[in-house]
Amino acid sequence: MTGENEVQELKRQLAAASEAARDAYRDTTRLIQLLALLGQPGGPDELMEDLLAVLSDVFFTDVVCMAQLAGDRLVVTGSCGLPEDDPGFTDGWTAGESALAALSGAAPVAVGGGVRGADAPGSVSRLGIRSAAWIPLSSEPYADTLLILFRTSDRPFAVADLRILSSVAGRLHLALQEREHNATIEQLAHFGHLLTRHLEAEPLLSAAADLLLRLTRADRSWVVTVEGTQAQLRAHRGLPAAQVQGWPRPAAAVDEPPGCGAGLAEVLRVAVTCEHGPTALLYAGRERPRPFARGTLEIMTIFGNHLGVALTNAELYRTLAERATRDPLTGLANRSALVSHLDRLLSAEDRSRVGVLFCDLDGFKAVNDLLGHEAGDELLLQVAERLRRGIRPEDLLARFGGDEFVIVLDRIKQLAEVAEIGGRVCADLNDLFTVSGERVHVSCSIGGVLGVRGGTTPSAMLRDADAAMYVAKGRGSGQVEVFDEDASHRSRDRLDLRSELLLARDRGQLHLAYQPIFALDSRAIVAFEALLRWTHPHHGNVPPDVFIPLAEESGAIVEIGQWVMEQACRQLAQWHRLPEGRGLGMSVNLSPVQLHQAHAAERTLGVIRAAGLHPADIWLEITEHSYLRHEVTEYASALGAAGVHLVLDDFGTAYSNLAYLKRLPIEILKIDKSFVSGVTGGHLDLSIVRAILAIADSLGLVAIAEGIETEEQRTALRALGCRLGQGYLLSRPLPAAQAGLLLRPQEQMPARARNAR
C-alpha cells in the first residue's frame, strides 16, 4: 500500500507540476502578447483600443474598460464591450466599494461569486456579472485611473491573473503617458504652425479656440482679451448664447458669475502675453464629471506661448499693413487703400452709383511757409478731423497726398448728391483754425464725379475728379465743380493732350515765335519776347493758355522751360552778331514751377553764358499771379546781382502787392492788355494805367504796355508817359527769320530802355 500511495502522490505532483507549467506557459504567453502590443507604434487612443480588445480575448471578459475617478463617479475613457453611446462615457458611474478600495490601496481587487450593487454599475448590471477585477494603473495610493474587467462566468480572477494584469496596467500607464506626451508635442508643434498662418487677430483667435478644444479634449473653449480695464470675448466654441452676451466686461470681474464657466464641472485657465498687444486668457472647460488629463494645464501653457508669438506676429502685420494703407500723419486711408476701396465698390453688384470728391486746400502753402511745417501738419490734422466729422459712416476719407483729400461716397443715386455733399464739406472748412496759437483761414476747392459700377475704374474717377477740382480752383477758392459724362470726356481729352505734350519737343512740334518790344515814339525795337508755340499734328495750333498749365501740372514745364531759354539765348546771340542787333534784349517767361526748382539761378546763368551772352542781355518775366516764396526771392536776387533784368508781368491783375517790388530786384513792369484795351474808352482803365505808370516812375522802373492793337491806344499811352510797348498794332509774334527783318540800327539796351522812359 505504501508503494501504491507513493505512486499516486507522484502522479498528483506530476499533474500539479504539469498544470503549473501550463499555467505558467499560458501566463507567459499572455504577458508576452500584451507586452508585444505595448511595444508597437501608434497613438495613445489606438494603443488603448487595441489593448482592451486583447485583454478581453485573453482573459475571457465580457466588458473591459478604462475609467477615471471624477469626484464620486467613474468616467469611462475607453472600453471593449460597451456601446459608444453608453452613459458611462458621459455621465460616468457611481464609484463602488471595490473600485475605491483598489484606488486607495493601489492594489488590485477581485470579486467572484456574483458582483452586486455599485460594483456592477450602469448597463453592466444588466449583463449578470459574476466576477470582476479592478486594477489601478499606478502604484501610488489614491490614483484616479482603473482598468476594470467584468465576466458573466463564475470563473474568478486568479492571483496569477491579477499579477499579470497589474504588470500590464503599470506598463500601460507608462506607455500611455509616453505616447500622450509625444502625441501632444507633435500636436502642439502642428497647432503652433497652424496659428502662425493667421496674420490677423480675429481669425487667429478663432483658430486658437478651435485648436484648444481639440488639444485639451474639452467640451467648451473660449478666448478673452484684456485691454486696460476691459475684457472682451473674442472667440469661443460651445458656449451657450446667454454667455456670449454681455461683453465687454470689467477685466477684474471676467471670471465672476455669470461667467462663461458657469455650469461646468472643471475649468482651466492660462494667461497669454504678447509683445505690443493685449493680454489674452485661454479657457477650457468640461461639462461632465470627467477630469482633464494630467499635464493639460502645462500643455495649455505651451499652446499659450505659441499663441503669444502668433499674436505678436499678427500685431506686427497689422502695424505694417496700417503703414502700407494708412497715412502716417492723419491716420486716414492713403492712396493705395483709397484705390483698393474704390475698386471694391465699383466691382460690387449694386444699382446705386459711387461718387468721388477730390478736395484741395486753398491757402495751405501760405500757412505752411509762414508758420512752418509743424504748423502745417497741425492744420492738416484739424482739417482731417473736420472732414471726418462731416461724412457719412459708409463713406471713406483718404489723404491723397500733400494738402489733397479724397472722399469716396457709396450708394449715390445722382450727381446732385455729390454736389450737395461737396458743398457741405466746403462749408465745414470755411471757418478759422487755430494753429500754433495763430488764427488762420483755409478753404477747399472740390471736384466731384459720379461713377457707374462696372462701367468705370478708380483711376478714371480720380482723374476726372482731379480735373474737376482744377476747374473749381480756377473759379476761385472754396468752390465746388462736379463733372457729368460730357465734362469727363473733356477732362480725358485734356489729359490726353497733357500726355502728348510730354513728347511734343522730341517730335519737333514746339517752336518759338518772337514778338518785338518797341519804343512807342520812335518805333525802334528794344527787345524781343520769346513766346512758346505748339503745333499739334491733329489739333493744330494749341493755345498757350491751354498747354502751359498742362506743362506745369505734369512738371514738363521745367524741361520745356530750359529748352526755351536755350533756344532764345542762341537766337539772341545770332542777332547780336549782326550790326543792327547789337544791344538787343531778349525777354523770356518763367513759370512759377521753374522758380521753385533747386539751383534754378545757377542753371539759368549757365545757359546765358553758354550762349556767349551777358546776363544783362536777358529779361526774365515772372507773373504777379505766382505765390513768391522765399526761394524765389533768393533766385531773383542772385540773377539781379548778376545783371539779369527782372520783369513783373501782368502787373495790376492780381494782388498788385507792392511788397513784391520791395522784396525783388524788379526793373520793369508790364501793364496787362486788359487795362491797355480800355485806356481810350473807360475812365477806370485809364486811371489804373496812370497809377501803374506813376508807381513805375516813382520807383525808377520801366513800364511796358502789352496788347496795343490800335493807334489810339498807342497815342494815349504816349500821352500818359509810357515809352515802351508791344502788340498786334506794332507786330505779331513772328518766326525768327521774319523777326530779324524788323531790326534797324538803334541804340543799345538797357540804356535804350531807360532813355525811353
Plain-language structure description:
With 757 residues, the chain is α+β, with helices and mostly antiparallel strands. It is 46% helix and 22% strand. The protein has 4 domains: 42-177, GAF domain (Beta-Lactamase, 2-Layer Sandwich), CATH 3.30.450.40; 197-239 and 247-252 and 260-323, GAF domain (Beta-Lactamase, 2-Layer Sandwich); 335-483, Reverse transcriptase/Diguanylate cyclase domain (Alpha-Beta Plaits); 513-755, EAL domain (TIM Barrel, Alpha-Beta Barrel). Strands 19-20-22-23-24-25-26-27 form an 8-stranded mixed beta barrel. Strands 3-2-1-6-5-4 form a 6-stranded antiparallel β-sheet, sandwiched between helices. It is rod-shaped and about 175 Å long. The relative contact order is 0.05. The model is unreliable at 746-757 (pLDDT under 50).
Please name the defining characteristics of this protein.
4 domains; 46% helix; Alpha-Beta Plaits; Beta-Lactamase; 8-stranded mixed barrel; 6-stranded antiparallel β-sheet; disordered C terminus; 757 residues; 22% strand; single chain; alpha+beta
Question: Layout of SSEs?
Answer:
Elements: H1 2-39, H2 44-58, E1 63-70, E2 73-80, H3 87-90, E3 93-94, H4 97-105, E4 109-111, E5 131-136, E6 145-151, H5 159-196, H6 201-216, E7 220-227, E8 230-237, H7 241-244, E9 249-250, E10 266-272, E11 279-286, H8 296-325, H9 335-347, E12 353-362, H10 364-371, H11 373-390, E13 396-401, E14 404-412, H12 415-429, E15 432-435, E16 438-441, E17 443-451, H13 458-474, E18 480-483, H14 485-504, E19 510-519, E20 525-536, E21 540-542, H15 544-554, H16 556-576, E22 585-589, H17 592-595, H18 600-610, E23 618-623, H19 630-642, E24 645-651, H20 658-663, E25 666-671, H21 673-676, H22 683-699, E26 702-705, H23 711-720, E27 724-725, H24 736-740, H25 751-755
Parallel strand pairs: 17-18, 20-22, 22-23, 23-24, 24-25, 25-26, 26-27
Antiparallel strand pairs: 1-2, 1-6, 2-3, 4-5, 5-6, 7-8, 7-11, 8-9, 10-11, 12-14, 12-17, 13-14, 15-16, 19-20, 19-27, 20-21
Helix pairs in contact: 1-2, 1-5, 5-6, 5-8, 6-8, 10-11, 11-12, 13-14, 14-15, 15-16, 18-19
